[in-house]
């Protein structure tokens, strides 16, 4: 049944910016819903891209200041507010707002009859001071408190852990719809495996603990020859991390922003993917790594609802990461077991299924 003839999606960052799990989620859902529905996405501008274009059936309208393609820019993000006004004045059957400035569209709910959905990927709440400096910590906490008081018609959580946080802060009408992966796309990408290679994919920010990984690679290189670390992503910690790797004299390559195809080529070339982050809403790259057939070492977090004890290697204390990595690098049997179990997990999370669940939620609201 076609229920939403016109869907409006609000996401400050959208195609071609696909650095984070949140942007990837909105992109994958949008291009699938556009096969049956009229989908319009409002995003920020990017240099070299038109202010209006159609991509895979999705109408993309870009407004505000130009945003860089390789990092996040707070000044540019602040110019997104006019998109909220456009969303409530344009005729749509439903509005779906990505976590961020987009979420404030719910404050206009009393002015329109259109159902408003907000999708949340993680909340920091009392951890803002730990990971972000003032005044960003206070601003972030205030934003989360404000969102919790907005009467959205539905709130989508990308994982059970995020749903728990949302419920704790008082959000209503919560539905949990985890993100997915494009297994067919991932499996098609060819890459040559490089022995003793470790890969990290994600933002280069303090709470991701990439410095811990770099120091671990230094320890590993004292026991194993030719260890290489590939780092995909960018962020405010990049300069510090580059200097740290140089100071410790490890073989580390920083790739910055790369295409999805290149990302998976680099992931597939590694023997193990590591996510040492202390905070995650979902950890989509871990499911992607499972789909790519690359074993995982990650810090144990409640957000990893897909962890079943046998599909990845987890640690609780930072001093355990080195031992976990050496175990995987040196044991073909261990790698094969994690790869097999991981792939079985990844098969459960396809973007097609995610889009169908989101579509069903829209159907219930329209």
Largest sheet, strands/sense/barrel? 8 strands, mixed
Named CATH architecture of the largest domain: 3-Layer(aba) Sandwich
**Share in helix:** 25-40%
Number of contiguous helices: 14
Average pLDDT level? 93
Helix and strand layout, with pairings?
Elements: E1 6-10, H1 21-33, E2 38-45, E3 52-55, E4 58-66, H2 74-77, H3 82-89, E5 94-98, E6 116-120, H4 128-131, H5 136-148, E7 154-157, H6 160-169, E8 174-176, H7 183-188, E9 197-201, H8 210-221, E10 228-232, H9 238-248, E11 251-256, H10 260-269, E12 272-275, H11 284-292, E13 296-299, E14 313-315, H12 321-330, H13 332-346, H14 351-365
Parallel strand pairs: 1-2, 1-5, 2-4, 5-6, 6-7, 7-8, 9-10, 9-12, 10-11, 12-13, 13-14
Antiparallel strand pairs: 3-4
Helix pairs in contact: 1-14, 8-9, 8-12, 11-13
Give a description of the structure.
The protein has 366 residues and is an alpha/beta fold. The chain has two domains: 6-180 and 350-365, 3-Layer(aba) Sandwich (Rossmann fold), CATH 3.40.50.2000; 183-346, Rossmann fold (3-Layer(aba) Sandwich). Helix content is 38%, strand content 19%. The protein is built from 14 helices and 14 strands. The protein has helices spanning 21-33, 74-77, 82-89, 128-131, 136-148, 160-169, 183-188, 210-221, 238-248, 260-269, 284-292, 321-330, 332-346, 351-365; strands spanning 6-10, 38-45, 52-55, 58-66, 94-98, 116-120, 154-157, 174-176, 197-201, 228-232, 251-256, 272-275, 296-299, 313-315. It has an eight-stranded mixed beta sheet, with helices on both faces. Strand 10 (228-232), helix 9 (238-248) and strand 11 form a beta-alpha-beta unit. Helix 1 crosses helix 14 and helix 8 (210-221) runs parallel beside helix 9 (238-248). The longest helix is centred in the last third of the chain and has 15 residues, at 332-346. The relative contact order is 0.13. The mean pLDDT is 93.
